[in-house]
Amino acid sequence: MNEYENERELMDYLNVIWKRKWLIIIPTFVLVVAVGVYSFFLPREWEVDAIIQPSKYMTQTEDGVYSEITIVDPTQIAAQINEESYNNLIAAELNLDIREFPKLKAENLRDTNMLRISTREN
């Protein structure tokens, strides 16, 4: 008995797919249209996140050991952003109307010297 007698060939699978192609194409097309219509009626909403690291510089001690010094504490920067201290400067730099400027939220990332700044609009 031939050991390859019970094996399926790739062409057998492709023939089955070709015979049933409309059972694959039609539901896929219907779902794509349904999701497109659904997403069209969803409220327009966007969110932007940015992670920044405050400036640092390296100093060398008399022993020749280098150390990093953060110029401004990230907690201080987060507080200033949350108090909207930079909004006028950012709006002027980006040529935006300050009345339409989005609300920025800043927070320190745990165990790092980095900040996450985010904004969300509906």
What's this entry about, in short?
The chain has 122 residues and is an alpha+beta fold.
Account of the 3D structure:
- By secondary structure, this protein is an alpha+beta fold.
- 39% of the residues lie in helices and 24% in strands.
- The protein has 2 domains: 10-41; 46-121, no CATH class.
- It contains 4 helices and 5 strands, in the order ααβββααββ.
- The longest helix is centred in the N-terminal third of the chain and has 21 residues, at 21-41.
- The model has no long low-confidence stretch (mean pLDDT 88).
Spell out the blueprint of helices and strands.
Blueprint: H1 10-19, H2 21-41, E1 46-52, E2 56-60, E3 66-70, H3 74-82, H4 87-93, E4 104-108, E5 115-121
Antiparallel strand pairs: 1-5, 2-3, 4-5
Strand adjacency order, main sheet: 1-5-4
Which class of secondary structure composition applies to the elements? alpha+beta
List how many beta strands DSSP finds.
Answer: 5
Give the overall silhouette.
elongated
Q: Which stretches are poorly predicted, pLDDT < 50 over at least 5 residues? A: none
Sheet with most strands: 3 strands, antiparallel
Number of domains: 2
The radius of gyration computed from the alpha-carbon positions, rounded to a whole number of angstroms, is 29 Å
Q: How confident overall, as mean pLDDT?
A: 88
Number of helices: 4
> SSE string, helix = H, strand = E?
HHEEEHHEE
CA(first)-CA(last) distance: 70 Å
How large a portion of the residues is in β-strands, by DSSP E?
A: 15-25%
Helix amount: 25-40%
